[in-house]
Design goal:
The protein has 463 residues and is of the alpha+beta class. The protein is built from six helices and 24 strands. A five-stranded mixed β-sheet has the order 3-21-20-19-18, with helices on one face. Strands 4, 5, 22, 23 and 24 form a five-stranded antiparallel β-sheet that branches. A four-stranded antiparallel β-sheet has the order 6-7-8-9. The radius of gyration is 52 Å and the shape is rod-shaped.
Length: 463
């Protein structure tokens, strides 16, 4: 009986313990880190209030796994709840992206168009450059074909004329100076040739130095000899000089001969009654001819009586820097002498800078006849008359330049030529011809020099 009671008590205790354990136990199912399904049965300890030691690593991973699953569920819930209200925002974002893409596309297309346009311009420029290079090479390698017409105008080589109209500057004159020498005498009929012994200019010798100015006023000026002197006091050996730098140039130095000139010993100094303008003066038949400062008035100063013998305005002539030579210096009016008499080389507003030649009466200074050319005065460094022909010097500074143009008043025709000419001192401000000495007189950067010239017709020449 006692044994039965003990067994019954144990059974009751076991049942009680099982029910309590069931109340404090839990059962769960979840995926582990590798994705496998794990069943977990947890029972609360009836005796320990807490586990001894720290939480194990596996438990920590389990907590993190559960939190990750929870965050994923919450995110899906939020996304699902906001799906109705967020569609407009998404549509707005899509619209912004489409607009930005369209803008980028438009800019890309515009850049392509700009690139095509620039490529076309580059091709045109390259084509034009190639054409100009070919024409330049043709001019350097072949003689020039001349076209002569009447009426006092110059018709240059066909490609050359196009280039002149295009460039219109002094550098192009330098390119023309590189043309081969082309004798032009065969272009003039025999019946039109006048003044026996007065042929075309064929060559110019090297400069010969006679004196160098020793003051700044001698930077440029005029020096020459009278080719046809009159009176008992002065001869063809007498040398005349004017230093042209200054605002009131009036001094005229006279030297007995070239030897005294080279030594710097003047025999006399004349003071002119009216100031001189620039380097365009000349001496002819016992008189000094010059332009009055800041005017188109021409003066004839008698060297014997030492007074003004005549004066006259050169009709419509530009003056004081309106149409000078390329070096400037107020060289608008340049007076010259040759075998045929006294000349004026100038331009007018109506001629728009083209050189005009007028033959003057040596006593009254009246213009007897005039010719207009097609070469601009400010495109050449200087000019002179020889045998009734105008010759222009391409540059006043280039060491090896040319006499690049000739206009014949007898035939009323002009043409491009290329007679070599040297500016040894690189600032040639005056070039005049003396037919008695058969020389060119020049004032080159303080240096007073002469050049021997050779002239003639095709197949013959005179010194």
């Amino acid at each position: 009986m006692l044994l039965q009671m003990s067994v019954l008590c144990l059974l009751c205790l076991a049942v009680f313990s099982q029910s309590r354990a069931q109340d404090q136990s839990s059962f769960s199912r979840s995926n582990d880190l590798t994705g496998r399904c794990v069943y977990t049965f947890a029972v609360v300890s009836p005796q320990e209030s807490s586990c001894p030691g720290n939480i194990t690593k596996s438990e920590t991973h389990e907590v993190l796994r559960r939190l990750t699953l929870l965050e994923g569920l919450v995110s899906r819930l939020i996304a699902g709840g906001a799906s109705g209200t967020g569609s407009s925002g998404l549509k707005h974002s899509d619209g912004d992206l489409q607009e930005a893409y369209a803008q980028v596309t438009r800019e890309r297309n515009q850049l392509k168009l700009d690139q095509e346009r620039l490529n076309g311009q580059v091709q045109k420029m390259q084509s034009a450059l190639a054409k100009l290079s070919q024409e330049t090479e043709m001019l350097r390698q072949r003689p020039c074909e001349q076209t002569n017409t009447s009426g006092g105008t110059l018709h240059e080589i066909t490609p050359l004329k196009g280039l002149v109209d295009h460039f219109e500057n002094n550098s192009f004159q330098e390119m023309k100076a590189e043309l081969k020498e082309v004798p032009a005498s065969h272009l003039i009929p025999e019946g039109n040739r006048s003044h026996s012994g007065c042929g075309e200019l064929l060559s110019v010798g090297d400069p010969v130095l006679h004196r160098k100015a020793d003051a700044i006023t001698g930077k440029y000026g005029v020096w020459l000899q009278d080719p046809d002197p009159l009176g008992p006091y002065y001869t063809e050996k007498t040398v005349w000089r004017i230093d042209a730098v200054g605002k009131d140039v009036r001094q005229l130095f006279m030297y007995e001969d070239m030897d005294q000139f080279s030594k710097g010993f003047p025999m006399k100094v004349l003071v002119l009654p009216e100031p001189v303008e620039s380097t365009g003066a000349t001496v002819y038949r016992g008189s000094l001819y010059y332009q009055r400062r800041r005017s188109r008035t021409l003066l004839r100063y008698n060297l014997t009586s030492e007074g003004i013998a005549s004066r006259r305005d050169l009709p419509h002539a530009s003056y004081h820097g309106q149409h000078p030579y390329s070096w400037g210096g107020y060289t608008d009016i340049d007076l010259a002498v040759d075998e045929q008499g006294l000349w004026a080389i100038y331009s007018t507003g109506e001629a728009k800078g083209a050189i005009i030649i007028s033959q003057l009466d040596p006593k009254s200074l009246e213009a007897r006849r005039s010719w207009e050319t097609r070469i601009r005065k400010n495109s050449v460094g200087n000019a002179f008359m020889m045998c009734g022909r105008l010759y222009t010097v391409a540059s006043y500074t280039t060491h090896n330049t040319t006499i690049n143009y000739m206009f014949d008043t007898a035939t009323n025709e002009g043409q491009a030529i290329a007679v070599p000419f040297k500016n040894k001192y690189r600032y040639n401000s005056m070039v005049d011809y003396n037919h008695a000495q058969r020389k060119l007189y020049a004032w080159d950067n303080f240096h007073m020099v002469t050049y021997d010239v050779r002239s003639g017709w095709a197949g013959q020449a005179s010194g």
